[in-house]
Each structure stands twice: as structure tokens, then as C-alpha cells.
């Protein structure tokens, strides 16, 4: 036996149903931001500890290969507060890092923030272009080969070849064909969109091959769901079924994988930038390690942590957009 709710009670229930998902979304966003801040705090803390635990005097560690003089030593002690207690030095380092001040590179004789600012642009440009190549490749291959046996076998062969090919070797092959022989794209440099094509292909094709495998498997499972039969009964074309309906149901595993792999693009950028003679954080990091320029190395490490945090946050927000169930939550427990 059930009792019908009065009009005021019905309004209250509807309002509660509308506000509960909103509260759940904001709570999830808040928790994600707190998690991101904890990761950045951990990265900055590890950077500070690495300076303190490095063998030798802290001044020598920060100087790298530069010659130690009384003037330079006094400047380093004042900048890092080395005459203060360790706790004060720690919070001082956190405060400056939170404001984007990573000290000074005594090897390059420049503020580290200025060095990062000048080199981050080309690297972000390369990684964004490589991600675009990977997503286009994955979507095109997955949607055209799902549930098609012959096309799927050919796609698996191509994907396996791309995943197994070293990045530097693929870059050399692309340079030999399209730069040295056909002379379509420039050999090296960072001038114009043409100089970005081959590095983006080198860095993005192997990533796209991995994503396409996961996306195709998810799409094949989605096309076997009851909703696919319903959509077909509406006289919707096969391409619309795959692109408008199937991809959204198949995207969650691919989005998760993409979020993990995009961080690896920064590591792949080191090799790609070296092969194509491009400026960027990759070459900067290698040069800083060779020159023992610790402030630059630590700043790049913190920046890499920031990139991972931003990417994982974006992935979490994409979950909410792709799967409405994550926005609404379950009310079964309350209704019983």
C-alpha cells in the first residue's frame, strides 16, 4: 500500500532531486582540487628534500659546474635563506614555488621562471599537436574498423607496427621521406606550422595506435547494446550510429587511457625535439642534467607534476560529461 505525496511534498522531492546531483558534482570537483593541491605540495616537498639530501654543500649543489665565489655564495644564501632554520627554508621554498619563483639558474645566469616561460611554449605546442594527431587517428581507425573483420585485422597490424617502432626511428624515417627526398617539410627548427607536422606525427601516431585499440573494443561492445538496435530502427545511418551514439558509450576507457598517456608525451618530447632540432623543455632538461643545473631540473619536475594534475582533473570532468550517471548518482537507497 502506498501513500500519494501532497503537492508541497512533491515540490520538495523534485527540488531535492535537482540539487543532489549538483551537490555531488561540486563535492567531486572540490575533492579533485584538494587532491591536485596535495600532489603539487608533494612534488615541491620532494624537490626541497632532494636539495637538502644531495651530497656536498647546498651552495655547491645549486651552483652546478659554476665556479664558487664569495659574492655568488652570499647571493645563493640570501635567495634560498640558507642561514635560516630548515623549517623556515622549507616554507620559504613552498611560498616562492606557489608564486612561480623557482630561483635562479647560475649556469644560464637567468631566473628559472623566465627560462621555463621561453621553452614551455614550443613543448606545449608540440604536445597539443601530437595529441590532436593521436585523437584523429584513433577515432578514424576505430570507427571505420569496428565490427569489420578484414579492416580490423589490417588496423591491428598497423597499430602494432606503430606501437613497436621507437620514436627516434619513426622520426628519422619521416625526415628521410618528407624532408630529404620529397622536400615537403623543413628538416629542423620551429618556424611555421610546416615545421610542426613531422614532429607531431612522430610523437602522436604511436599514442593514437594505443588509444584506437581501446576505443575500437569499447565501440564494438557499445554497438552490441540494445540502444544500438533502437537507434537503427530510427533509420539512422551507420556512420551517425558510430559517431554520435557509439563513441560516447565507448569513450570512457579511452579517455582514462589518454589521460595516463598524455603525460608521457612530455617524455617523448625529449627525443622528438632532439631529432628535429626543436627548442623546448625536453632539450632544456637534458642540458640542465648534463650541466648539473639543479634549480632548472627541480622546476621542470614541479611543472611536470602540474601537467599531470591538470590532465587528470580534465579527465575527471570529462567523465561527468560523458556519463550522466556520474552526475545524478544513485537514489535507490533513499527510495527504499
Topology:
Blueprint: H1 7-53, H2 58-63, H3 70-80, H4 86-98, E1 104-105, E2 110-111, H5 112-145, H6 149-164, H7 167-181, H8 194-222, H9 226-233, H10 238-276, H11 281-290, H12 294-322, H13 324-328, H14 332-335
Antiparallel strand pairs: 1-2
Helix pairs in contact: 1-4, 1-12, 5-8, 5-10, 5-12, 6-8, 7-8, 7-10, 8-10, 10-11, 10-12, 11-12
Features:
336 residues; mainly alpha; two-stranded antiparallel ribbon; 2 strands; disordered N terminus; disordered C terminus
Please provide a written account of the structure:
With 336 residues, the protein is mainly α. It folds into 2 domains: 21-105; 112-290, MetI-like (MetI-like fold). It has 14 helices and 2 strands; from the N terminus they run ααααββαααααααααα. The protein has a two-stranded antiparallel ribbon. β1 and β2 (110-111) form a beta hairpin. The model is unreliable at 1-18 and 330-336 (pLDDT under 50).
Low-confidence stretches: 1-18, 330-336
Counting DSSP H or I runs of 4 or more residues, the number of helices is: 14
Q: Output the CATH homologous superfamily of the largest domain.
A: MetI-like
In CATH terms, what is the fold-level topology of the largest domain? Answer: MetI-like fold
CATH architecture of the largest domain: Orthogonal Bundle
Sheet with most strands: strand arrangement:
1-2
Chain-averaged pLDDT = 79
- The CATH class of the largest domain is identified as Mainly Alpha
Apparent shape = flat
Structural class: mainly alpha
| Strand residue percentage | under 5%
- Report the order of strands and helices: HHHHEEHHHHHHHHHH
Rg over C-alpha atoms, rounded to the nearest angstrom: 26 Å
Portion in helices: over 70%
Amino- and carboxy-terminal Cα gap: 14 Å
Reported for the largest beta sheet, the result is: 2 strands, antiparallel
Tell how many strands the DSSP assignment holds: 2
Number of domains: 2
Amino acid at each position: 500500500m502506498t501513500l500519494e505525496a501532497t503537492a508541497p511534498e512533491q515540490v520538495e522531492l523534485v527540488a531535492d532531486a535537482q540539487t543532489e546531483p549538483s551537490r555531488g558534482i561540486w563535492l567531486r570537483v572540490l575533492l579533485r582540487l584538494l587532491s591536485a593541491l596535495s600532489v603539487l605540495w608533494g612534488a615541491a616537498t620532494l624537490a626541497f628534500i632532494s636539495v637538502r639530501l644531495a651530497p656536498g654543500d647546498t651552495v655547491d649543489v645549486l651552483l652546478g659546474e659554476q665556479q664558487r665565489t664569495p659574492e655568488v655564495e652570499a647571493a645563493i644564501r640570501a635567495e634560498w635563506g640558507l642561514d635560516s632554520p630548515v623549517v623556515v627554508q622549507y616554507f620559504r621554498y613552498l611560498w616562492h614555488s606557489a608564486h612561480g619563483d623557482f630561483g635562479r639558474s647560475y649556469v644560464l645566469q637567468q631566473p628559472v621562471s623566465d627560462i621555463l616561460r621561453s621553452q614551455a611554449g614550443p613543448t606545449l605546442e608540440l604536445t597539443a599537436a601530437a595529441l590532436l594527431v593521436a585523437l584523429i587517428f584513433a577515432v578514424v581507425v576505430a570507427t571505420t574498423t569496428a565490427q569489420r573483420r578484414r579492416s580490423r585485422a589490417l588496423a591491428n597490424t598497423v597499430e602494432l607496427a606503430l606501437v613497436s617502432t621507437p620514436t627516434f626511428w619513426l622520426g628519422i624515417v619521416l625526415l628521410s621521406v618528407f624532408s630529404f627526398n620529397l622536400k615537403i617539410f623543413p628538416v629542423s627548427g620551429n618556424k611555421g606550422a610546416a615545421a610542426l607536422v613531422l614532429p607531431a606525427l612522430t610523437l602522436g601516431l604511436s599514442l593514437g595506435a594505443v588509444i584506437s585499440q581501446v576505443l575500437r573494443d569499447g565501440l564494438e561492445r557499445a554497438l552490441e547494446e540494445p540502444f544500438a538496435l533502437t537507434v537503427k530502427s530510427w533509420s539512422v545511418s551507420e556512420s551517425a550510429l558510430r559517431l554520435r551514439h557509439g563513441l560516447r558509450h565507448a569513450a570512457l576507457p579511452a579517455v582514462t587511457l589518454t589521460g595516463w598517456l598524455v603525460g608521457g608525451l612530455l617524455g617523448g618530447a625529449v627525443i622528438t625535439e632532439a631529432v628535429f632540432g626543436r627548442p623546448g623543455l625536453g632539450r632544456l632538461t637534458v642540458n640542465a642534467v648534463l650541466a648539473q643545473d639543479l634549480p632548472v631540473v627541480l622546476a621542470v619536475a614541479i611543472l611536470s607534476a602540474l601537467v599531470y594534475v591538470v590532465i587528470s582533473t580534465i579527465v575527471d570532468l570529462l567523465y561527468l560529461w560523458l556519463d550522466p550517471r556520474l552526475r545524478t548518482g544513485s537514489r535507490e537507497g533513499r527510495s527504499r
